[in-house]
Structure prediction request, 204 residues.
Amino acid sequence: MKERFALKNWKRQHTEVLVAVLLLIFLLVPMLVLCFYAGPSADDFSHPLEVGYRWHSSVPNPVAAAIRYAGQKYLTWQGTYFSMFLNVLVPFYLGGNIAPVFCLCTLVFFVLALFFAVRTALATVLKCRALAATFWVFLAVFFLAVQFVNASEWFYWISGAVSYTIPAGLLLLGAGAACRAGAACFTFKYPWRAKCAASSGTRA
Prediction:
């Protein structure tokens, strides 16, 4: 009886994982295909053009020019060293043809970072390591994230990917790493588990 129940549970979990993966593919494939139609626009031209006009002749090193431009924009426009640096360096010195590849890489990076954060949070905080649960929670969070952000800016625009997608992905990686570090240092207690164990006569 136990073997039959275990086999049934195993089949159910694998079916849920398969359905979740198919839904994820259905959601991601159109987004990935659209990356190949991405091209430089707006700030992708203005930032590197200003650097090339002002400093390219006197500062042949593109990294040095990007650093100087980031410092100037930090003082006169916005305090984003990292994004201003990459906004200049990526489209101007690597060429406009980098846009599809860059957007594709940032989208994949964001998806993997989100999955890592969800997987780690469920495993460390809620002690849930079921792959099916991880995929369903990830799908829900990713779907909501796509609805609340401007996808054209986050995933198909170099300046937007640099300013929004990459920092968000790094934040998710940091959150996942923090969950792992917290799980190694602290013990999360679940009062409801103790109550359920007490009512069933087993140890928590």
